[in-house]
């Protein structure tokens, strides 16, 4: 009874609250206990209130009348099975799961109660079985290294599964000798490839496999036989497969594989300490211990998410905790042990929460008492957490992923422990909604305190995840971040319905989280697709009066009409929603100030500039610059007429606002790019700027263009690996018989890395770059947003960069595509391009121009800017150069452009031409090229530096090199003798004058104009396009 409540019970109520590890936005005091200072103050207040004389309380006692209520609202008397219309196979629903809680939430506020939404969004068994039976090609060496390094980065930073040094060594051995690796090592590499591809991909094409799924299916072949004498490699493989299974939203698979890992570990005795006399290697001992504790953590983490039992009890475990071993050979295999210990302690607490709170067994303690006990355990965890695992203050650098993941997991455990109480509080509020007159719900202080702890953890997680999204560290297919986001969103949705002081803010955070989930869904995230179904159902069930004050959302097919209405009303607030990415634009119009500046992110199907001009032709207007990412609209400018708008800036004026969520499929806006938000609908997660803020467009905020390219920053083999070496079998023997020239294609097999060292240092390059910088703006102005820059024979050159910079400056999107026959050069080139332009999609195509053209027809780019730089396009005899123009004419569309650089030196510039090739870099290139030539011809024992004399030659028609043999040599592959003194020609470069190039190009029906000429050489650049009909 209420009047018999003991002091100890009252103190339990006060000390039961728990806060996130870092209250506020990434702020904490220097000591661990500072995280709960506010709760200590709250405890003291409650004790003081309890000590004061007071009348008989009207709030029921937690340990008496409240007990039966709380106990009965959590679990049904019978297990929850859901009928999926599969014969004799109802699906068990764990009450502790996020999806189950979302259903209970909807059932609490709907009448009649809504049924559960089954999980159907996951990679199906049939598809995985089919893939496992198919041959999966082993990635090329550079790709294999990239995928393994990405996988190790993301897996090893939060869990310990494999020894990094052994994996990298095994990978190199496998690359050198594929048959040297046993089935376990190869399977381990297969699944690492899968994880690496998943984390290096930003969006999954709907008509293709989920990133890494083919590798994953190939790795699962090892599971067909369970070894009778398992090795630790088998456990590592299962843990990796379990980890990846979550990304496929195959949670039962992940749970089963984790449990299997624990069972195999027990068979091997990993749960016990092996005598040092039997295993003296300190690294091997630590590896055993850490693999065990990872299996233990996975089992408990996955079990707690599903509400299922664990595979082993703590009483059966005797192995030591992870340590920081001193090894004979230095390595970074074993990261900070304190982090892994903290993680496994949380996993243990998560399992304890499930056993204590989500159980049907009779309990001596009430539900409230059990929740309080769980929170006291979490508080002890916080107090014992090492200082370096706390999130640093706001003005410190971004927190490392380890503490961040730990804090998010901590919040999730706290939410799981307290949300049954939150659900009880919600039901109490719902009951009060129907009373007339409406009465204040009677909720015990303890329940309010526990529910507030749940909400505070959800707010903190949501803030951390928003920050991760903004700084680009939220991986598209990361299951954990996606799950934490959904779990927090559900709690915030409940909080928005409870009349608290922050209910409106929680509503806005819920909407923001929902939009993030929808963006992840659009990008191919299986879990987000499932969670979005729950979120959409929540929105349907939420009482309508909660959102009456929000602007209405026009249907997507009425967006043009909605914009028209904006221009016809003197004062109005409207909300426009992008139909795919759900980006929202708020505009408030005021006839006394300004009609509006409408700048809409992405390519919406909205009225054209001409349509708007016809509506506003009578008004004094200015134009927001056009380009993908900005749809141009006229606006009346009164008091802002003194502010100049140029092509590289977007002007956000007073009373216009953006909700910056789910902006791109690749990278959101950087946190330093701030915006003005609507005063009545203002997410607290996004900082504000003052009115009249001008925001520069940079590569960080360019949205990722929607193309057929599945990934960004990689090299795609479009046929380059299958190109035969006809120049070896045909052209090279003819050259040694003086029936042709040495083929330049040998440089693609030998010497390309040397060529890349000099490509950007020659006078031709510097002169051509000067022309590009001077004319890039003129060129890009002719091209629409979404243009693909096709760099023909990229060769690691930076000549494309001014064009990309100009696309960005003009607010247009572009995709950079480097086409080349040297795979190694492409890999290096694309990597550098991504560093320079992280927000621009960069793709390497390994193959010929003909193969590239077939590929472009499949991807259907908006427009193409072809770059044929470095005196290549017209570098051929007259007939061949003309044939090239004719061939290219067949590829050009009216919106395409071709930039051609061509050197045409005069006699006065001949000395400069010869001097350009008389350098150390060119000498190294020639030596490597000639060595490749000797290898293809079978010339044995000749030193390419002394066997040949290379001379630069220039006549009226061309520049070329004479290559003279200094001694007799024999081509063993062709049966040809090369006599001393024989001279061959290589690298012919035809000289083309301006008039000659114009005439040749016009004759085939193409239009050409000269863009510019270099001041110090004969280098010119030309712009070519299809002739008008």
TrEMBL record:
InterPro entries attached to this UniProt entry: MeTrfase_dom, SAM-dependent_MTases_sf, Stress_Response_Reg, XnlR_reg_dom
Highest taxon above the source species: Eukaryota
Predominant cellular place of this UniProt entry's protein: nucleus
Location of the region described as Disordered in the Swiss-Prot/TrEMBL record: 1-69
CDD domains for this protein: fungal_TF_MHR
Pfam families from the UniProt entry: Fungal_trans (PF04082), Methyltransf_33 (PF10017)
GO function terms (MF aspect): sequence-specific DNA binding; zinc ion binding
Cellular localisation: Nucleus
Keywords: DNA-binding, Nucleus, Transcription, Transcription regulation
Every Xylanolytic transcriptional activator regulatory domain range: 254-328
Keyword DNA-binding part of the UniProt annotation: yes
Any single GO CC term annotated in Swiss-Prot or TrEMBL for this entry: nucleus
BP GO annotations: DNA-templated transcription; positive regulation of transcription by RNA polymerase II
Biased composition (Basic and acidic residues): 44-55
Designated name of the protein: Positive activator of transcription
Protein's organism: Fusarium tjaetaba
């Amino acid at each position: 009874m209420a009047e018999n409540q003991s002091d100890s019970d009252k103190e339990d109520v006060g000390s039961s609250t728990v806060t996130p590890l870092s209250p506020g936005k990434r702020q904490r005091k220097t000591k661990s206990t500072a995280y709960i200072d506010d709760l200590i103050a709250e405890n003291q207040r409650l004790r003081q209130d309890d000590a004061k004389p007071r009348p008989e309380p009207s709030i029921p006692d937690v340990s008496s009348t409240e007990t039966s209520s709380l106990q009965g609202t959590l679990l049904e008397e019978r297990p929850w099975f859901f009928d999926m219309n599969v014969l004799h196979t109802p699906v068990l629903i764990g009450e502790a799961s996020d999806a189950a809680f979302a259903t209970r939430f909807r059932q609490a506020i709907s009448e009649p109660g809504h049924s559960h939404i089954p999980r159907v969004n996951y990679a199906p068994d049939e598809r995985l079985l089919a893939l496992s039976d198919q041959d999966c090609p082993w990635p090329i060496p550079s790709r294999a290294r990239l995928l393994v390094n990405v996988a190790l980065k993301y897996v090893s930073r939060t869990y310990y599964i494999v020894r990094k040094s052994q994996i990298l060594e095994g990978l190199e051995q496998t690359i050198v000798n594929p048959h040297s690796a046993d089935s376990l090592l190869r399977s381990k590499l297969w699944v690492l490839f899968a994880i690496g591809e998943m984390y290096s991909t930003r969006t999954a094409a709907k008509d293709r496999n989920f990133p890494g799924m083919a590798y994953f299916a190939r790795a699962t072949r090892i599971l067909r036989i369970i070894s009778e004498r398992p090795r630790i490699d088998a456990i590592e493989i299962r843990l990796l497969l379990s980890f990846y299974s979550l990304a496929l939203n195959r949670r039962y698979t992940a749970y089963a594989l984790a449990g299997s890992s624990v069972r195999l570990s027990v068979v091997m005795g990993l749960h016990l300490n092996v005598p040092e006399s039997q295993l003296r290697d300190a690294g091997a001992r630590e590896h055993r211990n850490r693999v065990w504790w990872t299996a233990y953590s996975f089992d408990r983490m996955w079990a707690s998410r599903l509400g299922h039992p664990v595979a082993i009890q703590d009483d059966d475990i005797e192995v030591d905790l992870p340590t920081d071993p001193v090894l004979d050979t230095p390595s970074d295999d074993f990261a900070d042990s304190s982090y892994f210990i903290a993680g496994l302690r949380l996993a243990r607490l998560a399992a304890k929460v499930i056993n204590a709170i989500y159980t049907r067994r009779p309990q001596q303690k009430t539900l409230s008492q059990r929740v309080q006990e769980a929170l006291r355990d979490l508080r002890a965890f916080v107090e014992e957490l090492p200082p370096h695992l706390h999130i640093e203050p706001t003005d410190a650098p971004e927190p490392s992923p380890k503490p961040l993941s730990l804090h998010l997991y901590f919040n999730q455990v706290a939410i799981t422990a307290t949300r049954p109480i939150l659900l009880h509080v919600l039901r109490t509020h719902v009951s009060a909604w129907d009373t007339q007159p409406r009465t204040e719900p009677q909720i015990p202080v303890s329940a309010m305190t526990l529910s507030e702890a749940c909400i505070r953890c959800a707010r903190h997680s949501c803030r951390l995840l928003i920050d991760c999204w903004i700084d680009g560290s939220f991986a598209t297919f990361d299951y954990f971040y996606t799950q934490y986001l959904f779990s927090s969103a559900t709690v915030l949705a409940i909080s928005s319905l409870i009349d608290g002081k922050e209910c409106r803010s929680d509503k806005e955070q819920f909407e923001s989280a929902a939009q993030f989930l929808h963006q992840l869904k659009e990008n191919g995230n299986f879990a987000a697709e499932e969670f979005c179904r729950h979120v959409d159902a929540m929105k349907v069930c939420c009482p309508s009066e909660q959102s009456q004050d929000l602007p209405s959302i026009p249907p997507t097919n009425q967006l043009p009409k909605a914009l028209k209405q904006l221009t016809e009303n003197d004062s109005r607030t409207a909300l426009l929603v992008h139909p795919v990415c759900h980006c929202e634009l708020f505009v408030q119009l005021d006839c006394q100030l300004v009609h509006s500046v409408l700048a809409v992110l992405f390519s919406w199907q909205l009225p054209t500039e001409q349509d708007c001009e016809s509506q506003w032709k009578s008004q004094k207007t200015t134009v927001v610059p056009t380009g993908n990412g900005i749809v141009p609209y006229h606006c009346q400018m009164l008091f802002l007429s003194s502010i100049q708008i140029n092509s590289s800036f977007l002007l956000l004026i007073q009373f216009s606002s953006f909700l910056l969520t789910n902006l791109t499929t690749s990278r959101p806006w950087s946190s330093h790019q701030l915006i003005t938000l609507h005063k009545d609908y203002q997410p607290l997660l996004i900082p504000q700027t003052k009115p009249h803020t001008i925001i520069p467009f940079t590569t960080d905020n360019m949205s990722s263009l929607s193309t057929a390219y599945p990934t960004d920053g990689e090299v795609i083999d479009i046929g380059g690996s299958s190109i035969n070496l006809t120049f070896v079998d045909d052209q090279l023997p003819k050259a040694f018989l003086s029936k042709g020239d040495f083929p330049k294609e040998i440089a693609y097999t030998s010497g390309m890395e040397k060529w890349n060292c000099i490509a950007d240092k020659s006078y031709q390059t510097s002169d051509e770059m000067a022309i590009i910088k001077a004319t890039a703006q003129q060129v890009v102005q002719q091209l629409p947003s979404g243009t693909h820059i096709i760099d023909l024979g990229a060769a690691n050159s930076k000549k494309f960069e001014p064009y990309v910079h100009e696309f960005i400056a003009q607010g247009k999107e572009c995709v950079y595509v480097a086409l080349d026959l040297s795979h190694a050069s492409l890999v290096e080139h694309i990597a550098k391009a991504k560093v320079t332009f992280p927000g621009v999609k960069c793709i390497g195509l390994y193959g010929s121009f003909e193969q590239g053209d077939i590929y472009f027809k499949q991807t259907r780019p908006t427009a193409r800017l072809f770059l044929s730089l470095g005196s290549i396009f017209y570098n051929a005899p007259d007939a061949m150069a003309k044939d090239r123009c004719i061939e290219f004419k067949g590829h050009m569309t009216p919106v395409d452009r071709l930039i051609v650089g061509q050197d045409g030196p005069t006699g006065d510039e001949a000395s400069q031409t010869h001097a350009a090739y008389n350098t150390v870099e060119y000498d190294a290139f020639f030596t490597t090229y000639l060595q490749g030539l000797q290898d293809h011809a079978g010339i044995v024992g000749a030193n390419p530096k002394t066997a040949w004399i290379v001379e630069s030659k220039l006549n009226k028609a061309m520049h070329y090199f004479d290559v003279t043999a200094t001694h007799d040599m024999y081509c063993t592959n062709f049966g040809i003798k090369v006599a001393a003194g024989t001279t061959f020609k290589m690298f012919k470069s035809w000289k083309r004058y301006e008039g000659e190039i114009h005439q040749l190009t016009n004759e085939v029906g193409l239009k050409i104009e000269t863009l510019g000429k270099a001041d110090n050489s004969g280098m010119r650049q030309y712009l070519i396009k299809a002739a008008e009909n």
